[in-house]
Amino acid sequence: MESPESLTGTQATLHVMLGLPGSGKSTWIDRHLVPQGCQVVCQDNIRRALGHVFHGPLESLVHALACLQARQHMARGLDVVIDESCFDVNVLRRWRRLAEESGYTPQFIYMETPLEVCLERRLATAFPREVLEHKEFSRRHNWPFILEDCAPLRVIPYTEKNQESETCLNN
Question: Are 134 and 21 in contact (CB under 8 A)?
Answer without folding.
Answer: no
